[in-house]
Amino acid sequence: MSAPGAGAARAEEFATRLAAVRTRIAEACRAAGRDPAEVELVAVTKTVPAEDVALLLDLGLETFGENRVQEAGAKVERVAELRPAARPRWSLVGGLQRNKAAAAARWADRVESVDSIRVADALDRAVRRLLETGGRAAPLPVLLQFSVDGDPRRGGVPAADLEPLAEHVARCGGLQLRGVMAVAPLGMEQDRAFSAVATAANRVRTRFPQANTLSAGMSGDFESAIRHGSDVVRVGTALVGDRPLASP
Ligand SMILES: *Cc1c(COP(=O)(O)O)cnc(C)c1O
Fold first, then answer.
1. How far apart are the first and last CA of the chain?
2. What average pLDDT score do residues 184-196 get?
3. Residues where N6-(pyridoxal phosphate)lysine occurs (predicted)?
């Protein structure tokens, strides 16, 4: 258990960090001649407990990014108990394995990490089953995770396979193709990386106009991503700190 007052201190810390992140987003948008209201902030809460997500909800954050399917499922339930009146949206931003697709389909409002036909098919099957049984009301919005450098170890679909994957996902009745997500490779110059991401996202958008969401940019590089047209920034460390609050 936390000491009395720990929650209040944590809430204050989050409020300060959130204000700083919003200022950075606003400044990046101003520099790029963009409207900050067009940039969605996803709070990446993969390292923090449900109690912290509840505090972030209280501060007005609405969408939360998670990367571990099982852990996130339990967290989603716990947050619903803590804040029954809130309607958080949950985005899966981490690598998805086929055997986790059914679990992800139960809690995810968006999956940003579809990077193969096999994963798309598993997710599509899981969602369609839920649609039939009333476990979901609508198809699942998905983004295709694009690999800037084509390195298969870090997830993401290489440039040559991106459009074939988009064609495939567009035909999946359980999925709604909404756009592209990417992580800038370590060691690559940020503007060069996000310029490549923007080019890839535009290719998909040209072919599928509804796939108009670009999710790019994290704590360390979202200004560059916003310059290159990102619509969604996924921010963890800058909002919640380097690691979870230590338990006593
Ligand atoms: C962890 C993670 C983030 C957030 O990264 P920070 O550097 O902590 O802001 C964003 N996107 C993905 C895919 C992640 O795994």
1. 8
2. 96
3. 46
CA distance to 23, 64, 69, 82, 232, per residue, from 53 (Å): 21, 8, 16, 10, 19
54 lies in which domain range? 6-240
Q: Kindly list the distances between the CA atom of residue 91 and the CA atoms of 69, 196, 206, in Å, as whole numbers in the listed order.
A: 10, 23, 24
User: Could you tell me if 198 and 223 are in contact, meaning their C-beta atoms sit under 8 angstroms apart?
Assistant: no
Closest protein CA for atom 15 of ligand 1? 94
- Reported as a single tens digit per residue, the pLDDT across 12-47 is 999 999 999 999 999 999 999 999 999 999 999 999
In the numeric block, the tokens 């520099």 are attached to: 31
Q: How many domains is the chain built from?
A: 1
CATH number at residue 206: 3.20.20.10
- CA nearest ligand 1 atom 7, residue: 219
Pocket test of ligand 1: the residue of 24, 25, 40, 44 to mutate, having most ligand atoms within 8 Å of its CB, is: 44
